[in-house]
Design goal:
The protein is of the alpha/beta class. 44% of the residues lie in helices and 19% in strands. Helix 5 (101-114) crosses helix 6 (129-138).
């Protein structure tokens, strides 16, 4: 995770002054959520949405939620907008067509440029920032990184406890591999960075 997250810190007020909107990326669905009528946003998305709401309350900027889904499902952006409403965010722009990070960038940029928006604060997980920024810059937007949910090991001192297998380490490793493969795929598919 460390190489993916390096160089990204939450933006300060000076950085955010130049932003015209906040864009928060989806992270998938959580099905079987009977407490929410059967479906809602994934837990990873909640982390992103909470931080986007925080930035909104600091800046007053509109927030765009970006996330589509299969044709037979409600777009992820709809569930994301519901959560942001609970956090008191207004206005909320929806981009309901994206199926991946590249799509988030392409569809969001098209919609935002039509509104005269060229510079955005981009909210996603810290480990996802390299691929997200790469995609949004190629879509023609200026990006202010808004990383959240950084993975930080509990034990950085190299004790024996640090070598004990942990489910959280397996999860973080899977997320990191997903990003490395995703970046390689995007560069192969859409051109070098």
């Amino acid at each position: 995770m460390k190489p993916l997250q390096e160089g990204y810190a939450p933006p300060g007020d000076d950085q955010l002054r130049g932003a015209q909107a906040i864009v928060v990326l989806g992270a998938g669905y959580r099905s079987g959520a009977e407490e929410f009528s059967g479906e809602t946003v994934h837990d990873l998305a909640l982390v992103r949405l909470r931080y986007a709401a925080h930035l909104h309350h600091r800046t007053g900027l509109p927030v765009m939620v970006s996330g589509g889904g299969p044709e037979e499902r409600v777009p992820e952006a709809d569930y994301m907008a519901e959560v942001l409403k609970e956090y008191g965010v207004h206005p909320i722009l929806r981009e309901p067509n994206a199926r991946d990070t590249w799509g988030n960038a392409q569809h969001s940029a098209q919609q935002l440029r039509a509104e005269g928006v060229e510079r955005v604060a981009l909210v996603s997980h810290a480990h996802h920032m390299p691929r997200a920024i790469w995609s949004f810059e190629r879509a023609g937007l200026e990006v202010i990184p808004g990383p959240t949910g950084a993975y930080v090991p509990r034990d950085t001192g190299g004790s024996l406890e640090a070598f004990r297998p942990q489910a959280s380490a397996l999860w973080a490793s899977w997320l990191a591999l997903h990003e490395y493969w995703g970046m390689a795929w995007y560069r192969w598919q859409y051109g070098p960075g």
